[in-house]
Every structure is written in structure tokens, then in C-alpha cells.
Amino acid sequence: MRRYTQIVFGINAIYLTVLGLFCLLAPAPLIGLYGGTDAEAANTLFQATFRVLGVKLIPLGVMCALITGNPDDNAVLRGMMGLLAVLTLVAYGIIVGIYPFNAAWLGMGALNVISMMLILVAAVFYHSKKKAPRLIAWRRAAA
Predict the structure, then answer these.
(1) Tell me, what's the pLDDT at 14?
(2) What is the pTM of this model?
């Protein structure tokens, strides 16, 4: 499971960092990829929203890279990424239930949902090989 965790978080580190950089530097094409029209891609509010999203995605990519390097020492980050995966899946469930979407959005959304499902599996089923530190020091009885 360690190798699976490293592979999943490594791929997601690349995916989230590259997507974050695209959101930050070139939001208009990404608005189009997510199903936005040309008028929406030219809208400064949408572009600002995608730039802020990019600022949030880049640190998530860095967190995934840290987990990839040593999953045993980054249990808190693994748990946080698992929480992010759950919240993302809930948000996509709400989005699919409420809003109409097109095939372009479905492709990008499916890629994100699949990556979050893989992260969730890695975060839930990974068990560290490190032993928990002893909280109580046993004393030897004097003979």
C-alpha cells in the first residue's frame, strides 16, 4: 500500500500543481475547458476566480509531493488530503445534482473525481510502518 500511496500522491502532485499553474497564469482557456462560453472566458470575475483557485491548488500539489516523499512522516497531511477528497466528492455530487453541464465539463470533472477517489483510498487504507512513540516510560523495580 506504500507504493500505491506514493504513486497516487505523486501523480496528483503533478496534476494539481500543473492545473494550479494553468489556473493562475491562463484562466481563460481553462474556463473554456470547463464548459464556459467565450463571453464567460473574457469575464474578469471568472478569470479572478480561476486565478484564486490556482493559488489554492499549487500548495495542495506541494502537500501531495511531501506525502509522496515519505508517507509515514506525513500522517496529518494524508488525513487532510483525505478530508479534501471527501469534500470534493460531496461538492461534485451537489454540482451534478443541481446544475446542467456539458461534455467538456464532464471530462474535466471526471478527471478530478477519479483523482480524489484514488487519494481517498490511499488516505484511508494506508497504515504506517512506524511504531507510535511510547507515552509512558516503564521503570524497573529495584530488586
Answers:
(1) 94
(2) 0.76
